[in-house]
């Protein structure tokens, strides 16, 4: 059925009930985060000394590059209703492997490839335990977070490897000529485009949203649920290992404790960007805005001499708000709808018959 006939003899299509395009584009949580980002940048530029200097933006991008990279596959994982908390320990493990393999005499490029392969294997371990063994991803990745971090520290101990080729370090930290933007952002843009196409313009991406809505319904619709989740965990481990190589070159140091606690910022960026923690809803540009917002706030606070502990508290608060706010908003909208229904004399909707999560892509 494509239309409904009204008692007055007029005919309305579904388009008559659809929100205007400008509302569907602008009145979204993702755009709200972008608006907040612009507001924070404008405020910090006027209130914090040296924030508007080009060098500040260079270090801002260098600081959040790892978060931006890991947030790409993390977005897809969370949309399926799962989570990967082991990403920061994979960063540390790949950093240590890169340093040890290069120190052992392998060419640096070969060491990088092997470290990334190890990250993919770590992601495959997570995916196997979730999809084949059937364990919850939260419990699995908390366990492998400790496992991979323990391996990293055990392999290298408390020492650090700091001798790396200058050409590789310059490759990721040097700026694009004529801009304050470091070269690593080119890699991020390429990966962001690839992940956006994968999520929003392919059958595989539609399957990701379907799994987040209902994995049983997705299975009966022909989506290979377990294989999709396994591939996403492998992608998450691979990109986290790539971020570990970047982390090593950015700071010139391979250590087992590199990127400790980074998973908090990654998850906060993804959820702040409008991805539902319950799965089935989100858009890739939202977490990018979330990561930029967290990075801009942290940069401004550091320039204002705020300690890292306070910055972590603010990041944690943003994470809590990003989880709680959608539920509060849905509750407020449902209450408003019930009030409008009562004012028109409509019978109340039974609370027990309310549908589940019906949010879409």
UniProtKB/TrEMBL annotation:
It is a multi-pass membrane protein. InterPro entries: ABC_transp_permease. Keywords: Cell inner membrane, Cell membrane, Membrane, Transmembrane, Transmembrane helix, Transport. Residues 339-361 are annotated as: Disordered. It is found in: Cell membrane. The chain crosses the membrane at residues 31-53, 59-78, 85-102, 108-131, 138-161, 181-209, 230-249, 261-279, 286-304, 310-332. It comes from the Bacteria. This is Autoinducer 2 import system permease protein LsrD.
